[in-house]
User: Fold this.
Amino acid sequence: MSAMEALRVSPVHSLGFPSRLDKTQFTKLFCSSFNPIPSSNSVSKSKLFTAISSSVSTELSDPFKPEVETQTPDGKFDWYAHWYPIMPVCDLDKRRPHAKKVMGLDVVVWWDRNESQWKVFDDSCPHRLAPLSEGRIDQWGRLQCVYHGWCFNGSGDCKFIPQAPPDGPPVHTSKKACVSVYPSTVQNGIVWFWPNTDPQYKDIITKQKPPYIAEMDDPSFTNSMGNRDIPYGYEVLIENLMDPAHVPYAHYGLMRNPQRKNKADREGGIPLEMAVENFHPNGFNGRREPGINKFFAPCVFYSSLPLGGSTKQDNGAASSTGTKKESSVQKRMVLVFICIPVSPGKSRLIWTFPRNFGVWIDKIVPRWMFHVGQNLILDSDLHLLHVEERKIMDVGSAQWQKACFVPTKSDALVIAFRKWLNKHAGGQVDWKGKFSGALPPTPPREQLMDRYWTHVVNCSSCNAAYKGLNVLEVVLQVVSIALLGVVAATKQSLKSMVAKSAMVSIALLCFAASKWLSHFIHKVFHYHDYDHAFR
Assistant:
């Protein structure tokens, strides 16, 4: 999937998006040079990993090498010693608690107005284990379990048990009445949590912070986010986002390819020169001029590329005439993909594409209009990746390098991720024995590619648009019926015949518009299939 292509099919083109991004720029964006990733842990000796030649050879050497199948006792990646993102703040409603699953952990996210902070609790009431996410925020700003009314403050302490006599022992002060609290923080407009409720990690934010993306907090860049629950696992999600070679094929028709002479095929795929280096437990880097790509384990994949040309920005200084000075800076666009392990066969993607040009577009175009095209990008390879994951499971993830033939440099980042996963991270997400290892059954295609429950209900912009458009559909139907009723009740006359004809025409237009809108709502907010055979 390509974020760049997601922008191409979004409404920005009809609004005069100031820069046309061709496939050469897109390729560079995904295959650019990497800088070392700072790490608080000891970094193993840097080893250059260069992808094998783009020319296919039957004498292909194994790019993983034997070291992939061994686990190094020193510097092994600890899945539970890192911050995990939950959701963008813009898609969280402060008026209610939100149920989320991350790393197999059921958590509830809620806004504590007494401390003005987002809190992350274990989604389980200590009384009878009912989900707190089904509860409410009471008038005192406490999280209330709606099963029996127990109330908890932002520290997880039980503050009220309705069934306890007021003159009896203060049972609500018992440690057993407390909810487990996860350390949490907000960074780059996203709520993160530390997946361990042990009190020793209460102040972990002072020692270790989530990966920081400067462009997401830079006011000269746009910062429109999206999120979606994905019906395939974390491993397949990340390697797909690291793979630029699939874009002209899996997303054909959703991107604008430059017209090339002597194309090898209709889609215009080309050899890609890619290399990767500096492996260590906290990720890896690669190199290709002139951009930057980074994998911050376990969740963040970052790509940045200068696009050519310049854009004017206000530098805050005043000229001698009293007007603000403007400086020219190079146009830049950043792709940030945040991939969240949810459970086997399920993941969550948060994306944002900050850019320092055309900033005005995001100020007037609502997010849901961008999400229309971006969801279509996700849908176009969703089914094949869901099936691919099951084939990988059949052969075993540890046998990936033997089952998959990856002879070209275009797979360098994918190979690097699988190498990192096997060498440093145990070969798969550590679920702490919470799951049997089997993937969930494959649902019908329409359910698999459903947008409503995987995106719309979790996106404040799309949810508002969905409700508004449904209201508009009903209004059009009511107007259509009302006009026909007026026509039927009007007496015959020469003038009334003209008026009747006009009202009947308007009624038919309203009815046709309501039917079109119904189709649009279903296609945009529920289900839009993608048939590769007829693209």
Observations:
- The radius of gyration is 27 Å.
